[in-house]
Amino acid sequence: MPHWSERAKDIAQAGAAVPSMSRSDRDCEQRQWPRWSISLLVGLMSIIWTIAAAQAAESCGNVIDVGALAAEDADVNHGMDRNLTFQQALFAELTRRTGCQFNLQPDLPRARQWKMYFAGELPIIASAFRTPQRDAAGWYVGYQMVRNVLLADPSTNSHTETFVNIKTIFHMIDIGRVDAVITSSRIYSDLLPAFNLTGRVSIIDWPAAASDYTGIYLSKKALPVKIAARIGRAIEAMLADQTLTRLYQQTMQSSAGDLFDFTVKPVDFDK
């Protein structure tokens, strides 16, 4: 049997035959590990985000149609045209936040939009004023204050009529069928000269109409409660974090002032 010292010598010689890793090789290996782990992490995060986005989009169902301002209004009034651009920016942000896809339909006449909304054929109406009748068919999410004034012809007696098309109202004032209208500066600033009404009507600050709001209606017939709530909560968050103020100033090309400086009670989507 070999002496223990000879065995130790053989083991030492065998170990010497195995090439040792240099310091530079060890440093290189240590540097490669973080790159590999980071690549794996980025890949996993990409997969997770892709799945999440796909699930969000899928859970919204088909593309959601939105009734926007009618083309017959927008082509006359520059204020309305800019408001349509604001709506487009608003729904682009809603897509980013909710994963839902929206299809704005400004070419659909406003009267037709409301008929479809009440029938459950149009899921969303944008830039809408609130009424009890509309509340019965959907959830209302207000997002913008509107500064209204009373335009009145002092030479005629007062009576009341209801119209859907804003141009029809100003035409009726022109021919003496309507004596007054409650509206905002973004509308009358262009429509007064368009209908040759400048100087023929009085602009009256009317406190009873000064605190109006515009917003969107989410149809109870056309939208599942979870989807409506997701959209509504996103709009409420956009109001709270001043995203709506930023979008307004970018698209309307003017200061938002205090149009979005208010708080609203969260919508109860269980009703």
How many DSSP E strands?
8
As a whole number of angstroms, the C-alpha radius of gyration is: 32 Å
Shape: globular
CATH class of the domain at 62-145 and 212-252: Alpha Beta
Strands in their spatial order, largest beta sheet = 2-1-3-8-4
Unreliable residue runs: 14-18, 71-79
CATH topology of the domain at 62-145 and 212-252: D-Maltodextrin-Binding Protein, domain 2
- From the N-terminal CA to the C-terminal CA, the straight-line distance is 94 Å
H and E order: HHEHHEHEHEEHEHEEHH
| CATH homologous superfamily title of the domain at 62-145 and 212-252 | Periplasmic binding protein-like II
By DSSP (H or I, 4+ residues per run), the number of helices equals 10
Main beta sheet: strand number and arrangement? 5 strands, mixed
Classification by helices and strands: alpha/beta
Strand content: 15-25%
Name the average pLDDT: 74
Concise description?
The chain is an alpha/beta fold and 271 residues long. It has helices spanning 4-17, 23-59, 71-74, 78-98, 110-118, 132-135, 166-174, 185-194, 225-240, 243-252, and strands at 64-67, 102-105, 124-129, 138-146, 148-152, 180-184, 202-205, 212-219.
